[in-house]
Amino acid sequence: MKKPATTVETIATTCIAGRIRVLNRVITNLYDNALRPFGMKLSQGNVLAVTAKLGVARPAQVCEILKLDTSTLSRTVDRMVDNGWLEVVPDDDGRSHPFRLTDQGRQLMERIIPAWEKAQVEAARLLGEDTLRMLDAAILRINMLDEH
Amino acid sequence: MKKPATTVETIATTCIAGRIRVLNRVITNLYDNALRPFGMKLSQGNVLAVTAKLGVARPAQVCEILKLDTSTLSRTVDRMVDNGWLEVVPDDDGRSHPFRLTDQGRQLMERIIPAWEKAQVEAARLLGEDTLRMLDAAILRINMLDEH
DNA sequence: CGACGATTGTTGCGTATACAAATTTCGTGA
DNA sequence: TCACGAAATTTGTATACGCAACAATCGTCG
Fold first, then answer.
1. How far apart are CA B3 and CA A140, in angstroms?
2. What is the pLDDT of residues A36-54, one digit of tens each?
3. Does A6 touch chain B if contact means CB atoms closer than 8 Å?
4. How many domains does the structure of chain B reveal?
């Protein structure tokens, strides 16, 4: 039964969030480098992928899945519409602004797959199998909380 | 020996980086909320903590530890100097701009500890012990690469 | 000494991120 | 119907992040 006695000097190495952020930067840069030739970054790629899965996507729904603030997604979608990868579709409910992939967006997804797979292999090698299993578990737990 | 046959619809749920980013957003928000009463966000808290550990810190060194681009740190340090938490110290080598905590910065660190600990407990509960172990392992592997 | 390459940071620019506040539209109850 | 609260999204503002280009300083080799 030892009391940890946190000191400012120990926080740097023990902070869970700090270490997740380091991980995030390293891995994100890896994918961003892989996607750069296509003029696309991972954050937009994720939106594209989720939209591909949903068919027609409502912003709130995508934000729920990606745990993104709606204001963040709003501007990301703007850029992707400008790039010709997404298009807004009309909806009965005037408050809703659903969107979907354009043909160009779907073609881009297809073209990107090899680069994405390469980054995926690299990331898996870098992190190790155990880490990947734990990532699955962590995401599961996070998603469970929302449904509760 | 099955070929995975990646399709655009499956990428959303399998992308390692995408899931790490989700994790990062959830956990970062948790700590940012805890630190908000102190006018401080986690990203600055990490710089503060690393600086506390180093005593006198050189930018390149902090960037190496946090895997941050030097341009990002440069501007974060500016803000923290403006806030009175860091001070730049002179150096023989005119290229170097090392910095350290001010008294005010160290006092802030001390005051923050309870809130940080609370977030830390919450994050640990949310992620589970196994995930924390994987985080240790992942960071270790990442740091090993640099030394190689 | 003096030019040149290497080291160390900073600036310009565009995207990503979230909170707070504003906006638009919807549903409902008087 | 119309007024008001709820729901869905956008705007305003500030920080975080990285790449490319620039700036400043240092070492060294001739």
1. 25
2. 999 999 999 999 999 999 9
3. yes
4. 1
B2 part of a folded domain: no
**Residue A85 CB-density burial (10 A; 0-12 exposed, 13-18 middle, 19+ buried):** buried
Taking only the tens place, the pLDDT of each residue in A21-39 is: 999 999 999 999 999 999 9
> By residue range, what is the domain housing residue A79?
13-147
Instruction: Answer yes or no: is B29 within a domain.
Output: yes
Residue B77 has a pLDDT of 98
Q: Is residue B1 part of a domain?
A: no
The SS3 of residue A86 is strand
B121 at the A interface (CB within 8 A)? no
**Proximity of residue A71 CB to strand D below 7 A:** yes
**Test mutation, B7, B11, B31, chain A, max A CBs within 10 A:** B11
Give me the residue from B11, B131, B145 closest to A138, CB to CB. B131
Residue A31 lies in a domain: yes
B14–A120: do the CB atoms touch at under 8 Å?
yes
**What is the percent of chain A where pLDDT is above 70?**
96
Gap between the Cα atoms of B129 and B117, Å rounded = 16
Determine the distance between B71 (CA) and D23 (C1') in angstroms: 14
Q: What is the CATH number of the domain that holds A86?
A: 1.10.10.10
| Segment B38-74, tens digit of pLDDT | 999 999 999 999 999 999 999 999 999 999 999 999 9
Residue A100 dihedral angles phi and psi, to the nearest 5°: -150, 170
